[in-house]
Specification:
Its EC number is 2.6.1.16. Keywords: Aminotransferase, Cytoplasm, Glutamine amidotransferase, Repeat, Transferase. GO terms for molecular function: carbohydrate derivative binding; glutamine-fructose-6-phosphate transaminase (isomerizing) activity. The protein is of the alpha/beta class. The protein contains 15 helices and 12 strands. The strands form 3 sheets. It has a 5-stranded parallel sheet, sandwiched between helices. α2 runs antiparallel to α10, α5 runs antiparallel to α12 and α12 runs parallel beside α15. The longest helix has 22 residues. The chain is globular and about 55 Å long. The protein binds 5-amino-5-deoxy-1-O-phosphono-D-mannitol. The site of 5-amino-5-deoxy-1-O-phosphono-D-mannitol (M6R) has 17 residues, from α5 and α12.
Length: 366
């Protein structure tokens, strides 16, 4: 049932090219210049007239929500707030019938997320669910929604659910950008075509697996790790750190790269591995200067870079390449090596990768 892989997590990491394709199959019609999503088409007015979009989720799904915040604001020019469902539901939030709430949940059963959507519905907001499990409670409670179609995710550490959530949310943002008229025909077309290349580029990113295993062996005994990224890749840094924490039990923190100098830089010495996402698009030069700051404090740098990068190669201790793509699509690629590094470190430390201690696949109690 693990399809020849040692663990479900590894199987699910490798399933991502297919899972992403399944997510956009029948929706992304690049040759017709069309994205078809019934849940959006039928409720277009709700989205276009919304004052703002509120995204609620927990854990990895919350990280997908953060990526979506960048995508929706950047592409569709709709204001977005991203909330932990557990905080949102208890802080007497201001919600009106002009709000659209998007709930993101792999399982569709997370108690806090479910409670958050019930609250939003009571206040008259329109609720859109992005779930993986068909017929789940959140899917049923939502006014409309879009499934991720990632297939069953068994490993407690979420992998393919994350990249397929980002895929669905990207399709939604593109559709709204087009409907709002903020996207030219040619830009829209460029995005649709580029999205179609993503499964192949994820495949390519997975080819770094052997290199990543070697890197994992170097850092497997670390007690702390930092993860840094900017812009679209800031949430990816958070997600990379969460993945390492939950399956290898190594303390890890994700930060926006520029925040490093407001505190975490004090932690950096020769024993601190720092994973930095430094893809060519999006504040590249600024990330390079962050890398220089880490280097001058003797931190160990593992950089995720765009294929062919030369500048970071000279500074970093290790570089892992991912193919080039549009900036807003980079999280779909930069996530892959971070999933693999966590996986290999956890295996080397003898941890129970698929069922880490103290964790459940779906958190149905608050
Ligand atoms: O099923 P959900 O997406 O609602 O679950 C949310 C979190 O519990 C989940 O993402 C959790 O953080 C994972 N273990 C992360 O790998």
């Amino acid at each position: 049932e693990k399809g020849g892989y040692d663990h479900f997590m590894l199987k699910e990491i490798y399933e991502q090219p297919r899972a992403i394709k399944d997510t956009y199959r029948g929706r992304l019609l690049a040759d017709q210049g069309l994205i078809r999503m019934a849940g959006i088409d039928l409720n277009m007015e709700k989205f276009l007239n919304a004052n703002r979009i509120i995204i609620v989720a927990c854990g990895t799904s919350w990280h997908a929500g953060l990526v979506a915040e960048y995508i929706f604001e950047d592409l569709a020019r709709i204001p977005v707030e991203v909330e932990y469902a557990s905080e949102f539901r208890y802080r007497n939030p201001v919600i009106t019938d002009k709000d659209v709430l998007i709930a993101i949940s792999q399982s569709g059963e997370t108690a806090d997320t479910l409670a958050a959507i019930k609250l939003a519905k009571e206040k008259g907001a329109f609720v859109f669910g992005v779930c993986n499990v068909v017929g789940s409670s959140i899917a049923r409670e939502s006014d409309a929604g879009a499934y991720t179609h990632a297939g069953p995710e068994i490993g407690v550490a979420s992998t393919k659910a994350f990249t397929t959530q980002i895929t669905v949310l990207t399709l939604m943002a593109l559709k709204l950008a087009k409907a709002k008229g903020v996207f030219s025909e040619s830009r829209y077309h460029e995005y649709l075509c580029e999205l179609e290349t993503i499964p192949g580029k994820v495949e390519k990113s997975l080819e770094s697996n052997t290199l990543i295993e070697i890197i994992a062996d170097v850092y497997k005994d670390s007690t702390n790790c930092l993860y840094l990224g900017r812009g679209y890749n800031f949430p990816v840094a958070l997600e990379g750190a969460l993945k390492l924490k939950e399956i290898s039990y190594i303390h890890a923190e994700g930060y926006p790269a520029a925040e490093m100098k407001h505190g975490p830089i004090a932690l950096i010495d020769e024993h601190m591995p720092v994973f930095v996402i430094a893809t060519k698009k999006g504040h590249y030069e600024k990330v390079v200067s962050n890398i220089q700051e880490i280097k001058s404090r003797k931190g160990k740098i593992i950089a995720i870079v765009t294929e062919g990068d030369e500048q970071v190669k000279d500074l970093a201790d290790h570089v892992i390449e991912v193919p080039e793509t549009l900036e807003s699509l980079t999280p779909l690629l930069t996530t892959i090596p971070l999933q693999l590094i966590s996986y290999h470190i956890a295996v080397m430390r003898g941890c129970n990768v698929d069922q880490p201690r103290n964790l459940a696949k779906s958190v149905t109690v608050e």
